[in-house]
Amino acid sequence: MCAVLSTQILGFLGIELTMKYIVLILFILCVIYVHYRGRVRYSFWRQLSDHSTFTAPLNVFMYLFSRAPTTPYLQPEQFPELAVLRDNWQTIREEGQKLMEIQQIKASDKFNDAGFNSFFKTGWKRFYLKWYDDNHPSAMTLCPQTTALLRGLPSVKAAMFAELPDGSRLPRHRDPYAGSLRYHLGLITPNDDRCFIEVDGERYSWRDGEGVMFDETYLHYAENKSGQNRLILFCDIERPMRYRWAQAVNHWLGRNLMSAATAPNEEGDRTGGVNRLFKYIYSVRKVGKRLKAWNKTGYYIIKWTLFGGIAALIFFSI
């Protein structure tokens, strides 16, 4: 009896261990796919610690079931609902220009915008208009016409005015979530090739009244050396999926995960859970930065030991 029971237990443990390795292999395959998806790639060690490694399974799901092309750039005409923004770009520009004049398009100074915190250091600025079903009271007060246009576009999950002043840049990065596609509408631009965004090695220079659509999960960066500021309308459009059930999954993830990253323009706007925690997380990060400046080798030993420990904990707890 004991022998039979022992055999059954060992068999169960063997199946459980096999399933863990299957999950691990699938995860690794997803990471490899994300890494080699574009022409421009991070180094091995940079990729290993990038957020796109941890969101790889989720994003591969989005790529596999995407109804939109999975190329770096897409044609805005494939999203006919966005025509209303292009048709009203001058109205939108007027409200954006007023915000610039009263200096409301700005960087956060309270560590309450985790998603864009690193961009503030290189000069980028923003003013939120909408973020995954969260409407900003400040935006509705200061930009009534633009927010009214956006309310009529349910596929636009997030929107903001984004300013890239002369001499500023966005470092090379990829966004963590493939459930959306990025749309830029030129409002006040230098109309100059020295002010550009480069997505997977291909450059685009903004033009007034012109829209561009791209997949923000490809590596991209931007810079402005034109001598003039650049203002655009920046929108995240829900990625269209092939099947209704896949679209429902994407919509649910956007509503329940991305909404946690809501950041305020000013007092009275909602702050999501992620950004309420961010100031505490960032204080830990500052300790890490001090350690790195003092002892780079020690920093990396601690970093990779922690990463390895967390990975092992997750693997053996599945």
UniProtKB/TrEMBL annotation:
The chain crosses the membrane at residues 18-36, 298-316. Keywords: Dioxygenase, Membrane, Oxidoreductase, Transmembrane, Transmembrane helix. Residues 87-240 form the Aspartyl/asparaginy/proline hydroxylase domain. SUPFAM superfamilies: Clavaminate synthase-like. GO terms for molecular function: dioxygenase activity. The keyword Membrane applies. The keyword Isomerase does not apply. InterPro entries: Asp/Arg/Pro-Hydrxlase (IPR007803), Asp/Asn_beta-hydroxylase (IPR051821), IPNS-like_sf (IPR027443), Lipid_A_LpxO-like (IPR047694). Belongs to the aspartyl/asparaginyl beta-hydroxylase family. This is Beta-hydroxylase. It comes from Serratia fonticola. The lineage of its organism: Bacteria, Pseudomonadati, Pseudomonadota, Gammaproteobacteria, Enterobacterales.
